[in-house]
Amino acid sequence: MLIVSYDISNNRIRTKFAKFLVKFGYRLQYSVFAIKNSERILKIITSEITNNFEKSFDETDSVIIFHFDDNCKKTCFGYARNDDEDLIIIT
């Protein structure tokens, strides 16, 4: 499973991003989506963020993708790239 969390200040871009994510999963909270984990879907999402959405981000906008698989990692875009802390999962 992937969890995509975002903080986008521009209403138009935020709405467009949410409509994009709903194609792959469902909303858990206003700015958090659960998405089925597959390499193909992950590539589509990261490519779309990098090639389209990230260009429109201001300095405070961010997207974080949490990968809940064997490796449990996170991928950050926008302002969130400044966060270099490891993801710790306790079960």
What does this structure look like?
The chain is built from two helices and five strands, in the order E-H-E-E-H-E-E. The chain has 91 residues and is of the alpha+beta class. It has one domain (2-82): 2-Layer Sandwich (Alpha-Beta Plaits).
Terminal CA distance? 16 Å
Instruction: Report helical residue fraction.
Output: 25-40%
What count of domains describes the coordinates? 1
Average pLDDT confidence is 86
Proportion of β residues? 25-35%
Question: What structural category characterises the helix and strand content?
Answer: alpha+beta
Q: Runs with pLDDT <50, length 5+? A: none
What does the main sheet amount to? Answer: 5 strands, antiparallel
CATH architecture type: 2-Layer Sandwich
Provide the succession of SSEs: EHEEHEE
Shape: globular
CATH first level:
Alpha Beta
- Order of adjacent strands in the largest pleated sheet: 2-3-1-4-5
Put simply, the count of helices is 2
* CATH fold title: Alpha-Beta Plaits
Count every beta strand, where a strand is a DSSP E run of 2 or more residues.
5
Supply Rg. Answer: 13 Å
Briefly say what this structure is.
Helices cover 29% and strands 30% of the residues. It is of the alpha+beta class and 91 residues long. The protein has a five-stranded antiparallel β-sheet with strand order 2-3-1-4-5, with helices on one face.
